């Protein structure tokens, strides 16, 4: 659902996909090839939210802020299932793990990886290529070349997903039994270890 709020109508590039069960409200700008999953809430009611090209905000994520703020999720930022971004800015090509929480006025640097369930305190300034884990989140090392290559490859899948959704996603009635010639699911994902072996 796309909602106008106080004269602000969300702007969504035609190449991006916002799931019908997501809610995008007010002062929101969504760039090219972005994916917004079901259950996501991007609330630009109190301030501006900018998603640059190629950003994905997955299922059940929340993006919001305190009044009067403007936040940006930069090009290729990857926000995993259930994460909360509250008044924080995300650097280019960073990854926020599942159910992580990034608090107000934080700056997540370019190509950072924030682990699942991590809690990044308000006003944290995280240098680029940092790997953070824990509650409160701590930097444990620098993100390696192979880790960022793996992350980037995974984000590319999400950047292709909007076109796939526009082409083939449709509401249907369920089948009542398994068909004889049920199509096989394509296997195109590699874990970090599998990715390293391939390289």
TrEMBL record:
Gene3D superfamilies: Hexapeptide repeat proteins. CDD domains: LbH_paaY_like (cd04745). It comes from the Bacteria. Transmembrane segments: none annotated. PANTHER family: DYNACTIN SUBUNIT P25, GAMMA CARBONIC ANHYDRASE-LIKE 1, MITOCHONDRIAL-RELATED. This is Carbonic anhydrase, gamma-type.
């Amino acid at each position: 659902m796309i909602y106008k709020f106080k004269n602000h109508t969300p702007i969504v590039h035609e190449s991006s996909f916002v799931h019908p069960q997501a809610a995008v409200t007010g002062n929101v700008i969504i760039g090219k090839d972005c994916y917004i999953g079901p259950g996501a809430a991007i609330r630009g009611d109190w301030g501006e939210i900018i998603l640059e090209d190629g950003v994905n905000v997955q299922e059940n994520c929340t993006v919001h802020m305190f009044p009067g703020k403007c936040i940006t999720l930069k090009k290729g930022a990857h926000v995993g299932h259930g994460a909360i971004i509250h008044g924080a800015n995300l650097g280019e090509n960073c990854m926020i793990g599942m159910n992580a929480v990034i608090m107000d006025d934080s700056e997540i640097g370019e190509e950072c990886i924030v682990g699942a369930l991590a809690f990044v305190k308000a006003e944290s300034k995280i240098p680029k290529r940092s790997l953070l884990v824990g509650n409160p989140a701590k930097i444990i090392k620098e993100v390696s070349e192979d880790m960022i290559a793996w992350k980037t490859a995974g984000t590319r899948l999400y950047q292709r997903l909007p076109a796939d959704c526009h082409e083939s996603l449709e509401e249907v009635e369920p089948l009542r039994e398994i068909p004889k010639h049920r199509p096989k699911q394509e296997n195109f994902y590699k874990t970090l270890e599998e990715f390293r072996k391939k390289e």
